[in-house]
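Render Heat-inducible transcription repressor HrcA in 3D.
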Amino acid sequence: MNGTPITELSARAREVFRVVVESYLGTGAPVGSRTISKLASLNLSPASIRNVMQDLEEAGLLAAPHTSAGRMPTESGLRLFVDGMMQAALPSAEEQAAIEGRARGGGTIEEALVATSMALSGLSACAGIVLVPRREPVLRQFSFVPLNAMQAIAVLVGTDGTVENRVVDLPPGMPPSALVEAGNYMSTRLTGLNLSQARGRMDEEIGRGRAALDLAAADLVARGLAVWSEDGAARPVLIVRGAANLIDATASADLERVRQLLDEIEGKEEIARLLDMARGAQGMKIFIGSENKLFSLSGSSVIAAPYRGGDGQVVGVVGVIGPTRLNYARVVPMVDFTAQALTRLMA
C-alpha cells in the first residue's frame, strides 16, 4: 500500500475515485471515462476524467487491466475507500430479523453458530465463517439412556444450559442399573468440572479406591468421559458455510482464482489463525487481498468481528470470506450486527 491519504486528493479526484470504486464493486467490470462522464453530478468532460484517472493510477489507487481501457481499484485503493470514504448502510429490519432468528433458533450453542453463519452467508452472498469458542463444557448433569444391548446415549447438560448427546458403545452384559449408577455418580461427583478436570478426578478416585462404583459403572463413566473428550478435541474450531456462493457469475472468467480460494478455505487451520488476529480487536477487522499472505494468490477479502461471552471476554469471531469486489458498505455493518447478535446469545 502506498499510503496515499484521502486528504491529499482533490475534491474532483475523490469524486471520480468514488464513482470508479462504487461502480466496480457493483458490476465487477473496469470503469471507463465515458461511463463516468454520463453522471451529471460530475460536470466533467471525458478528457478531464481521463486525466484524473491517470493521476489516480499513478498514485497507485487505480489500475488498468490489459484487456480493458477502463480502470478498477487496486487493493490499496480499496483500502483507502473502505477506511476513508465508504458510507455504511445498516442491515434492513428483515436482514436483522433473519440473523437474530437463526441465532436464537434453539438447539446447542454450536448449532446456533452454524445456523447464524448460514444466514450471514445467504445475506452477504459470501462464505460465512465462525470461529467457535475454545472451551470445554462444564458439567451440570450427566445421564445414560439405553438404546439397545450394545449402545447407550450419553446426555451431557452444561452449566450454560446446553444439552448434547453422543452414542457410547457398551460392553457385553452391561446391566441397566450400571447406567443409572454411572449417571448419578457423574452428576454428583463431577458437577462444576470441565471434561479434562472430570477425567482427572475420576482417575484419581478410582486409583485410590475411593470411587463408590462397581466395575461396570466405573467402566461406563470412563467411556462417557472419553467419548466426550475425544469428540471435543476433534471438533473443528472453524465453521464455514456457503462456500458455493464464491462461484458467482464472474467465476468462469477467473477459475484459477476461485480454485485457489476454495483450497484456502479447505485449509481451515490457516483461516482460524487469521481470525485469531481479530480476537484482540475492539471491533471490525478487514483484510483485503494480499494484505494477508493467506489470500495473496486468490485476491480475496475477509471481514471479521469478535463476539463476547457473558463475562464480556472475547470468545470467538464471526465474518465472511469473498472476492475483493465486495459490497463493503453493506457487508461490513452486517457482520458487525451478527457479532452483536452472537454476543447477546452468549450473555
